């Protein structure tokens, strides 16, 4: 149960973008930069970029820091998040170096999301590709996270070697993405933000609210909880389904398991995609326990970034859905 002291949703919404493989990748990247610029103009507080390797789950962004640096050159205020750097594949000092350079290029706007990989087969090819045993994921993550935290906190690689550029406040902008309650508790104790998800190797269909409770039970200071929701707004429920159908026709490889309307309904349910008008989606989200303690909401639009109506959906999220989820001030 989420405690009574849990924070309500505060601050502007965030956008979570999955760059999907398929079209020429440079085109995907250009579309995503344009989306980031639009999100900033609409008042979104952050945009997070899904990062996976070797086209796992059709993702198109294996190296997030160069891309964040590119987006930073086209934006001025929106925070830019890595969603996420899989630490078992990385040397923590190299992550620290890449992160501080990217943070400098963005003017201090980097949000450093880290994790272990999704599990359930989504990251199996990545572990194999990097020659890392999946059975070592927990130990590798714990060791490399601790070293990354130390280097960013101290600004030093060793007593004799300083990190350059200096990390500034970047240590306070680490977020841990996890579906594991123990990891969530450790994130709270470390003062890191939490990006909770139920679909992980550690929790088959687990409740995000349990992860939030675990995090809050050890959290010192101000909690940072970024809860994700997937929404597909349209003029009507039928129109929203038409949006999805258009995306299915344009990306058959991505939706190869969807053969009929029953498969589509199951896809919507499995991925907890809220569809309909903005008003209908807001009503569906009011009962979402995962949002009860969120300090920011990460909206995902389940369309390819090049979809002709992606920008329209983004506008509806920014102007019609997100503002109505913020708490009214207490009089």
UniProtKB/TrEMBL annotation:
One GO MF term attached to the UniProt entry: oxidoreductase activity
Gene3D superfamilies (UniProt xref): Luciferase-like domain
Matches recorded under InterPro entries: Bact_Lucif_Oxidored, Luciferase-like_dom, Luciferase-like_sf
Keyword Protein biosynthesis attached: no
Domain annotation Luciferase-like: ranges: 23-290
EC number, UniProt record: 1.-.-.-
Keywords per UniProt: Oxidoreductase
Main EC class the enzyme belongs to: oxidoreductase
Pfam families (alphabetical): Bac_luciferase
UniProt xrefs under PANTHER family: BLL6902 PROTEIN, LUCIFERASE-LIKE MONOOXYGENASE
Protein name: LLM class flavin-dependent oxidoreductase
Organism from which the protein derives: Nocardia beijingensis
């Amino acid at each position: 149960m989420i405690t009574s002291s849990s924070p309500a949703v505060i601050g502007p919404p965030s956008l979570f973008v999955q760059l999907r493989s398929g079209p020429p990748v440079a085109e995907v990247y250009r579309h995503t930069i344009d989306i980031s610029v639009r999100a900033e103009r609409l008042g979104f507080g952050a945009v997070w970029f899904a990062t996976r390797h070797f086209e796992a789950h059709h993702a198109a962004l294996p190296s997030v820091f160069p891309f964040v640096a590119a987006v930073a050159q086209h934006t001025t205020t929106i925070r830019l998040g890595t969603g996420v750097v899989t630490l078992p594949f990385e040397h923590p000092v190299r992550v620290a170096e890449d992160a501080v350079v990217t943070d400098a290029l963005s003017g201090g706007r980097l949000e450093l999301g880290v994790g272990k990989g999704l599990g359930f087969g989504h990251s199996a090819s990545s572990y194999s590709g990097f020659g890392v045993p999946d059975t070592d994921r927990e130990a590798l993550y714990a060791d490399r996270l601790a070293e990354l935290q130390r280097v960013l906190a101290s600004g030093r690689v060793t007593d004799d070697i300083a990190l350059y550029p200096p990390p500034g406040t970047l240590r306070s902008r680490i977020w841990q993405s996890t579906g594991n309650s123990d990891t969530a508790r450790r994130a709270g104790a470390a003062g890191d933000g939490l990006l909770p998800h139920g679909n992980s190797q550690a929790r088959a269909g687990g409740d995000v609210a349990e992860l939030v409770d675990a995090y809050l039970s050890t959290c010192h200071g101000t909690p940072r909880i970024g809860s994700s929701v997937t929404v597909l707004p349209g003029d009507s429920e039928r129109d929203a389904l038409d949006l999805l159908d258009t995306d299915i026709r344009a990306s058959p490889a991505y939706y190869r398991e969807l053969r009929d309307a029953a498969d589509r309904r199951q896809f919507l349910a499995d991925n907890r995609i809220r569809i309909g008008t903005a008003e209908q989606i807001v009503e569906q989200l009011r009962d979402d326990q995962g949002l009860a303690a969120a300090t920011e909401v990460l909206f995902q639009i389940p369309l390819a970034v090049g979809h002709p109506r992606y920008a329209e959906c983004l506008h509806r999220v920014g102007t019609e859905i997100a503002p109505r989820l913020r708490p009214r001030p207490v009089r």
